[in-house]
Specification:
Elements: E1 5-6, H1 16-20, H2 31-47, E2 54-60, H3 63-74, E3 80-85, H4 88-100, E4 103-108, H5 117-126, E5 132-136, E6 138-139, E7 144-145, H6 148-157, E8 161-165, E9 184-188, E10 199-205, H7 206-210, H8 223-233, H9 242-257, H10 260-282, E11 297-301, H11 310-319, E12 322-323, E13 325-326, E14 334-338, H12 345-361
Helix pairs in contact: 2-9, 3-4, 5-6, 10-12
This protein binds pyridoxal-5'-phosphate (PLP).
Pyridoxal-5'-phosphate is lined by residues 9-10, 62-64, 67, 89, 136, 140, 165, 167-168, 188.
């Protein structure tokens, strides 16, 4: 049987070239590996035009490790962080702040409502003690795109620091450090760059990072220490994810050869359009209106039919070669389908055909939320 296609927000389907790049073992203190680290970090800065004022600090672990490291390193112990919350990854930031003992102010939003720049502005105006805003760019819990440029302009105007979780947008959705001011932007190897999972990275404002020594509660998560060691030795502190970095080097080479951010966004937009139009033709409904939908991951309402259950649906779609993702909403029953990875619109069309076949097999007749489809 062929490997299944992962329609999830990471790990995702990678190219044969990316996977093949992991067939070499690297010595972690070897000059060739140090050069690999330096070249990847240079490219990660260049992708968001951040070479002038920012540095790239790579970190072992999944993306959340890098989010936690950025918050713990850049927010002082007496800092206070505004978290505009419209989904599960925003809530994760609030949980992290709780563990770190950093004060959080949550600005609750509906899950179908983009983070509201006017409310952020008002919250900052009302509370001078807020030092930072922690903003998720694409909220992968639903797939909603938050208006990052507008929010960044407000945070800059109010003179606070901005920490961006750009995990599921970096590389695909435009972010330009020359026009959008941030203290830190966090992403990882295994999302829109289409590497394999295992490391994250923080694009941090150099002066902010330099002024952050002593903030971190944790040695392993201290980005200042990681960065200083990297500068001094060219090496990661502690065992680096050598194969993950080699795969990321290859994935970035392919990214550039394919046309960079604009081409990646165009392919994902094509994937998303093929998915959404196919699913709507079946009668399934998206959770978000098109205007708020990022072409990264799409949340669908579960069919309102007693014959449907996600576990069985998932198993049967998997048998046909596609891995779906459960929903992450508490109020409504949903499932999610990713648009990212080394796949094209043809894969999404085949996935829609598989979903149609499975729902028919299961005897699901009412596809829409209201049960009228
Ligand atoms: C994937 C993702 C993360 C990190 O999740 P991990 O499971 O730790 O890799 C963080 N934020 C967003 C918005 C994401 O999509």
């Amino acid at each position: 049987m062929m490997d299944p296609i992962l329609l999830t927000p990471g790990p995702l389907t990678t190219s044969m070239e990316t996977r093949s790049a992991m067939l070499v073992d690297w010595g972690s203190w070897d000059g060739a590996f140090n050069a690999l680290t330096a070249s990847v970090c240079d490219d990660l800065l260049a992708i968001v035009n951040a070479q002038n004022d920012h540095v790239c600090v790579p970190l072992q672990g999944s993306g959340t490790f890098s989010v936690e490291a950025a918050l713990g390193t850049l927010v002082p112990k007496d800092g206070k962080v505004l978290v505009p919350d419209n989904g599960s990854y925003c809530k994760r930031i609030t949980r992290i702040l709780g563990y770190l003992g950093r004060e959080a102010v949550v600005l609750p939003h509906d899950e179908q409502e983009p983070a509201d720049p006017a409310r952020i502005d008002a919250a900052l105006a009302a509370d001078a003690a807020i030092t930072h805003v922690a903003q998720v760019h694409c909220e992968t819990g639903t797939g909603i795109l938050n208006p990052l440029p507008k929010i960044a302009a407000i945070v800059e105007k109010r003179g606070r620091g901005l920490i961006i979780d750009a995990m599921s947008s970096y590389g695909a959705i435009p972010i330009d450090a020359r026009s959008l001011r941030f203290d830190a932007l966090i992403a990882a190897s295994g999302k829109c760059l289409e590497g394999v999972p295992g490391m994250g990275f923080i694009i941090a404002r150099r002066t902010t990072l330099q002024g952050s020594a002593g903030n971190s509660h944790s040695l392993a998560m201290d980005l200042v220490d990681q960065w200083q060691y990297l500068q001094k030795t060219g090496q990661w502190r502690f065992t680096p994810p050598t194969h993950v970095l080699a795969a990321l080097r290859s994935a970035i080479d392919q990214y550039k050869a394919q046309g960079g951010q604009a081409a990646r966004l165009a392919r994902y937009a094509g994937n998303c359009a093929a998915l959404v139009s196919g699913m709507r033709a079946l009668g399934l409904e998206t959770f978000l209106p098109d205007a708020l939908q990022a072409p990264i991951i799409v949340t669908f309402h579960a069919p309102n039919d007693p014959a449907y259950n996600f576990g069985e649906f998932y198993r049967r779609v998997r048998e046909r070669g596609f891995i779906l993702y459960p929903g992450k909403l508490t109020a409504v029953d949903t499932f999610r389908v990713g648009c990212i990875g080394a796949i094209g619109a043809d894969a999404l069309k085949r996935a829609v055909a598989a979903i149609a076949g499975v729902l028919e097999e299961m005897g699901v007749r009412r596809f829409s939320r209201a049960g009228i489809g």
